[in-house]
Amino acid sequence: MYTFSSKLKTFSLILMVIGAIGIGVGFWSAPKTVEEVETILLEESHGHHDQVASHDAHAAHDAHADAAHQEHVNHVFHQLQNKPWAAFYVACIFFMLLSVGVLAFYAIQQVALAGWSPILFRVMEGITAYLLPGSVIFLLVLVLSGVHMNHLFTWMDPEVVANDHLIQGKSGYLNVAFFLIRAVLFLGVWNLYRFFSRKNSIAQDNADGVSFYKKNFKMAASFLVFFIVSESLMSWDWIMSLDPHWYSTLFAWYVFASFFVSGITAIAMVTIYLKSKGYLEQVNTSHIHDLAKFMFGISIFWTYLWFSQFMLIWYSDIPEEVTYFVTRIEHYKLPFFGMLVMNFVFPLLILVNTDFKRLSWIVVMAGIVILAGHYVDFYNMVMPATVGDQWFIGLPEISAILFFLGLFIFVVFTALTKAPLVAKGNPLMEESKHFHY
C-alpha cells in the first residue's frame, strides 16, 4: 500500500496556498473601471501622450471617431477583466482534461485486453481521481460565465448576439441553458464511468471469478462510444466556441491529441516517481518504454493534426477561417511557434531513440517539456479569443498553474493510498508483471 509522504503532501499544499493567493491578487488587480483602462492605454503609448491627447481633442469634433475610440477602450476593458478568468480557465481545463485523457487510455486498455498495462491500472485510477474535483471547479466556472460574471464566451452576451447574425444563426446550439446541460451530461457520465470502473477494479482483487473484470470490459466499450461523441462536442463547446465565428472540422481530434498525450505523459511520470520510491517493483524498463512510445507516437499524431488544420486553412486563405491563425501569429508568435518546438521537435529528437525510451530521467525530462508544451497549446487556444493582444504570462497564469498542480498532486497521491498499487485480481496481471521484450 502506498503511503503519501508528508513532504510531498506539504509541497502540494504549499503550491495550492501560493497559487490561491496569486489568483486572488490577479483578480483584485484587474481594472475595475474604464477610466483605469484609459490610463493604462496612455501609459502604453510610451511617450506619445501628446499625440494621443491631440488625437482625442480632434476626435471630440468627430462623433464617429469618438464612439470608435470609446468602443476600443471598452473592448480592452473587457479583455483585461478577462485576463485572470482566462488564466484560471486554461489551467483548470488543462488539468481536468489531462485526467480525462488518462481515463480514455484506461478504457482503451480494458477494451483491447492489453496484457502489458494492468500493472499500471492503479496509477491510472489514481490520476483519474482528479476528474471529480476538477469537474466541479470547471463546471462552477462555466456557470459563472453563464450568469455573466465574466466575458470569456462572447456568445453569452445578449448585446453581442443582438448585433451578430452569425451567432444568432447558432443560437439553437449556443445558448446558456443547453450549453450547461451538455456540460453536466458529459462531466456526469465521465465521472460515473470512473467511479464504477474503479469500484469494480477494487472488488476484483478479492473476487473468486472474473465477473467484475468482465463488467469493466463492457463498461469501457460503452464509455468509449460515448466518449468519442462527447469529446467532440466538448471541444466545440468549451474551447472552439470562445471564437464563435470560427470552426474547424479537425478541431475535436486536435484537442483530443493534446490532452491524450498529456495524460499518458502523466502516467509515465507518476509511475517513475512511485518506482523511485520503492513501489511498483514489477514495473520494468519495458513498461516505461511502451509509455514513452505512446508519448512519442501521439506527439507525432498531434503534429500531423496541427499541420493538417493549419496548412489547409492558411493555404485556402478564406478570411473568416485564416483570421484565427493570423491573430495568433501576429500577437502570439512566441507561444504559437514555441509550442511546436516543445510538442514536436523536442519529443521527436529525444524519444525517437529506442534506448532513450528506457531511461527514466530522459522520459521525465521529455515529459516535463511535453506537459508544458501542451499547457501552452491550450493557452494559444483560449487566450487570443478572450484577452486579444493584452496577454503575457504573469502572476495570474503562474498562480493558476501552481494551484491546480498542487491540487492535482494532492488528489492523485491521496487516491493512490486508498487501494493496493497492484490490481492483483486482474486476470492479465501475471502477463503484465513478466512483460519484457
Describe this structure in words.
This protein has 437 residues and is mostly helical. Helix content is 75%, strand content 0%. It is built from 17 helices and no strands. 41% of the residues are buried.
Given helix and strand content, the structural type is mainly alpha
Beta-strand portion reads under 5%
Shape: elongated
What's the total count of β strands? 0
Order of helices and strands: HHHHHHHHHHHHHHHHH
Number of helices: 17
- Determine the fraction of residues in helical runs and give it as a percent range: over 70%
In short:
The chain is mainly alpha-helical and 437 residues long. The chain has 17 helices and no strands. Helix 14 packs antiparallel against helix 15.
